[in-house]
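Input record, target 12 of the design panel.
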């Protein structure tokens, strides 16, 4: 097989780079990766594959720039001409391209972050905690700003919702390519190192091509736990303390690192992975205990290695850095408990007292992991006490840089992660609780479900005993509809441990999800805090309380516009109630990756919240592809944490709260008009006769359940005859696959039309953060939709009335969003995002055309069992479209 010419090798990248205005280095990366993929397709693909990929690619690019029906029909005809086996290969080729394009874009983000690093003139005030602190101090004074900084909390909670469409093997391959691309970037042009990097990238892309893109089986909950651990090991263990260091460096200036830090650890990690059993029968009490054990093992390994590394560096002689009396006493105590090791350490580190102590501390951390009762630390506080003794001794001996250098980073890690790494949260549906409580109170033999529910409380108690109270204890009640739903948890816990048993420490958290539940939330909270168990727990926590808000089900319930307004109203009312009661409230935002589930930029959403609803505390769910996009790369993870924490700090600035309060009052009538009009429009669609069956026909909703994304079933048990029990994730996922993205925007056009005053709406967009965030997110959602492809999906359903309703609303919404934002199209005010969407869209179109072909074949098949080859093509295209759109559920 001949080598491709340079022109042919670059062809896969596309000829529209100039129009897309890619940064020069990113364009070079895309061309390099694309050319290597072109070689792989020629060498490893079947005969003619490269040429077929090129034909479809060129046709979809032409159709994207030429909006004539003929251009689009030509592209569709090419997709329809492929055999199913050829379509399979073509879909895999485009999916591989998206993985490489995403890698090039991520590398560009990292490059830009490095260029901005430490350059305040290139930062916005919401981009970093340090810049936000300066702004806040100007409004409230240095002392108040410092107090708020030191009390701030950012609490991401990782969840295992089925939204990560990539296999872990694919993700790992992409990470290896990321390293090689960095080596290529830093090598001399044309040099041996650069040629070597290109050769290894070619090998890796060939491996990526040959790796099966679809999981053979659904991951188990324990598999999901281990996937999250990979993110922790590779990124978060060091990234989070590095954020603290950067903030402290910025605030302390030249004195940073030589004196006590002003920054206190403000990140706490949470996880539902292995704890969320709402609708997931595979998450059992045994799985929950395994999840806690795996997480503890990972953090203790990390802490042991850090302590050992610090010990090796503390080669400070006793005559230059004499130990304090407290350090001598600590050595005596540690040595008495570990005599053989102490004797060996004295020989290996003569006259180096700080090193000796750190070596024994590292051994005690290892003993904690091994559950050696004689040496193990009882809890993280005991380890912190020992580390602070070492730190104080170094300071007293005139070695503050050693005290506040790597040792301080270790202290921050222990304070952030404890011995548990992430706080494991349990979630269960209120209806399950009610059913099990009725069984317990009726007496007699318990069902398997009841025994499992009670086992969970015993598992929580065991986890707390082994890893400390912080390791587990938050218990979330899905579909909370009354105070009784929350009180039931305490009653079940008592049944689990018996009348004389010791109850686990429980913070019971309501999850308000539907429109009606959000409206009822303030009254439910006012009622439940009067209950004895809640009042007692409030007293124990100094009046701290947590309330979770569901974005996805409320959006599926009343539409995205009414849901956003209802969420804002619920937050405002719950926050006002908490302030009156003297309660320190944390609102927990159940946001997803897609815009239909509350996705979008987190920092702008935080700054749009009602007054006193943040107050320096922000907690949200992070899931699926969002976890790897935000936390998979260290530089991007640090940037994300810095930005979200900055917004959390600024949200309660007097100027921000005043702006949000005044805007909410000024535009209350606009909100009311939008709410009623959008809800009516949304109901006209979803409450139409036969809508549920039509939805399942015009989207790959049913087929998504076949994709081995996560351990959780796509539905809670009902058939597609009813949408009530369909999980919000496949609801959003299916609409995005159909290139409609309905869950993110439907009803907004009608809502804006109901207001009708364009000048008023433009003014509201500038002055009202909630509306601005909503419209910007809808602009993003619509930019990823495609009306021509959407019509083809809708045509599968043979319901012109519903199809016309969707398309009319899409065009109306596009028109209003463009008019309000200004410019010559969607995302005109966000050129970087607009460029990214334009770069991907023609290639997503190609995959969508292949998916449509598979769907038509599956829908027309009269047998009950769909042909496996068409099903495989559809699932391949689902994975590819997910990679291209960069969001799933």
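The sequence produced for target 12 reads:
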């Amino acid at each position: 097989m001949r080598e491709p010419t340079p022109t042919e090798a670059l062809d896969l990248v596309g000829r529209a780079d100039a129009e897309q205005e890619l940064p020069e280095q990113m364009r070079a990366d895309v061309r390099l990766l694309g050319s290597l993929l072109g070689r792989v397709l020629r060498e490893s693909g079947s005969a003619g594959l490269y040429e077929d990929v090129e034909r479809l690619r060129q046709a979809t690019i032409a159709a994207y720039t030429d909006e004539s029906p003929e251009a689009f029909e030509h592209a569709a005809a090419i997709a329809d001409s492929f055999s199913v086996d050829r379509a399979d290969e073509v879909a895999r080729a485009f999916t591989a391209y998206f993985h490489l394009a995403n890698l090039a874009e991520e590398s560009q983000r990292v490059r830009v972050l490095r260029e901005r690093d430490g350059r305040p003139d290139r930062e916005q005030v919401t981009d970093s905690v340090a810049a936000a602190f300066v702004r806040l101090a100007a409004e409230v004074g240095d002392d108040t700003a410092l107090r708020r900084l030191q009390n701030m909390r950012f609490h991401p909670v990782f969840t295992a919702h089925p939204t990560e469409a990539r296999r872990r093997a694919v993700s790992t391959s992409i990470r290896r390519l990321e390293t090689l691309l960095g080596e290529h970037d830093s090598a001399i042009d044309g040099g041996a190192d650069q040629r070597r990097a290109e050769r290894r990238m070619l090998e890796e892309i060939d491996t990526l091509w040959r790796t099966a893109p679809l999981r053979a089986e659904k991951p188990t909950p324990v598999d999901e736990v281990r996937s999250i651990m990979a993110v922790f090991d590779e990124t978060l263990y060091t990234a989070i303390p590095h954020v603290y260091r950067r903030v402290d460096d910025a605030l302390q200036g030249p004195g940073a690192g030589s004196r006590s830090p002003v920054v206190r650890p403000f990140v706490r990690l949470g996880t539902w992975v292995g704890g969320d059993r709402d609708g997931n029968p595979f998450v059992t009490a045994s799985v929950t205990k395994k999840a806690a054990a795996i997480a503890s093992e990972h953090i203790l390994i990390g802490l042991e290695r850090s302590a050992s590394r610090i010990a090796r560096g503390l080669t400070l002689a006793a005559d230059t850095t004499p130990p304090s009396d407290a350090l001598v006493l600590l050595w005596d105590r540690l040595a008495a408990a570990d005599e053989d090791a102490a004797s060996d350490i004295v020989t290996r580190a003569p006259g180096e007292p700080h090193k000796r102590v750190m070596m024994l501390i590292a051994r005690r951390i290892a003993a904690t992991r091994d559950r050696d009762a004689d040496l193990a630390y009882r809890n993280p506080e005991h380890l912190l006490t020992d580390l602070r003794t070492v730190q104080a001794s170094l300071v007293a001996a005139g070695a503050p840089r050693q005290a506040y250098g790597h040792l301080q980073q270790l202290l921050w890690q222990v304070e952030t992660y404890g011995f548990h790494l992430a706080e494991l949260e349990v979630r269960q549906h209120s209806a399950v609780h009610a059913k099990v409580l009725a069984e317990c109170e009726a007496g007699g033999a318990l069902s398997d479900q009841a025994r499992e529910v009670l086992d969970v409380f015993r598992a929580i108690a065991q986890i707390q005993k082994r890893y400390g109270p912080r390791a587990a204890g938050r218990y979330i009640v899905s579909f909370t509809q009354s105070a009784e739903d929350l009180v039931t948890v305490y009653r079940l816990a008592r049944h689990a441990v018996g009348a004389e048993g010791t109850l686990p420490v429980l913070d019971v958290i309501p999850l308000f999800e539907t429109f009606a539940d959000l409206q009822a939330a303030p009254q439910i909270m006012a009622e439940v805090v009067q209950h004895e168990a809640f009042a007692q727990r409030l007293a124990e926590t100094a009046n701290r309380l947590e309330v979770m808000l569901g974005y996805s089900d409320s959006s599926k319930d009343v539409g995205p516009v009414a849901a956003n307004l209802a969420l804002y109203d619920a937050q405002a009312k719950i926050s006002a109630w908490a302030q009156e009661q003297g309660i320190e409230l944390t609102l927990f935002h159940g946001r997803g990756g897609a815009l239909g589930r509350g996705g979008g930029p987190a920092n702008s959403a935080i700054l749009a919240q009602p007054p006193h609803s943040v107050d320096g505390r922000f907690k949200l769910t992070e899931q699926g592809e969002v976890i790897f996009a935000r936390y998979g790369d260290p530089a991007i993870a640090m940037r994300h944490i810095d930005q979200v924490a900055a917004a959390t700090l600024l949200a309660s600035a007097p100027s921000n709260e005043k702006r949000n309060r005044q805007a909410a009052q000024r535009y209350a009538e606009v909100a009311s008009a939008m709410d009623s009009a959008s809800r009516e429009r949304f109901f006209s669609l979803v409450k139409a006769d036969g809508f549920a069956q039509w939805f399942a026909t015009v989207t790959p909703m049913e087929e998504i359940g076949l994709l081995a994304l996560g351990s959780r079933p796509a539905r809670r048990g009902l058939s597609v005859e009813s949408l009530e029990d369909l999980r919000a994730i496949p609801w959003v996922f299916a609409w995005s696959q159909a290139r409609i993205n309905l869950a993110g925007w439907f009803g907004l056009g009608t809502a804006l039309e109901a207001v009708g005053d364009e000048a008023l709406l433009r003014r509201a967009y500038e002055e009202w953060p909630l509306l601005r965030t909503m419209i910007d997110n809808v602009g993003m959602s619509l930019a990823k939709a495609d009306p021509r492809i959407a019509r083809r999906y809708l045509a599968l359903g043979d319901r012109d009335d519903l199809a016309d309703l969707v398309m009319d609303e899409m065009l109306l919404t596009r028109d209003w969003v463009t008019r309000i934002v200004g410019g010559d199209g969607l995302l005109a005010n966000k050129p970087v995002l607009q460029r990214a969407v334009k770069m991907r869209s023609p290639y997503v179109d190609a995959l969508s055309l292949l998916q449509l072909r598979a769907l038509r074949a599956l829908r027309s098949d009269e047998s009950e069992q769909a042909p496996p080859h068409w099903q495989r093509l559809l699932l391949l295209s689902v994975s590819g479209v997910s990679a291209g759109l960069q969001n799933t559920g």
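The radius of gyration is 28 Å.
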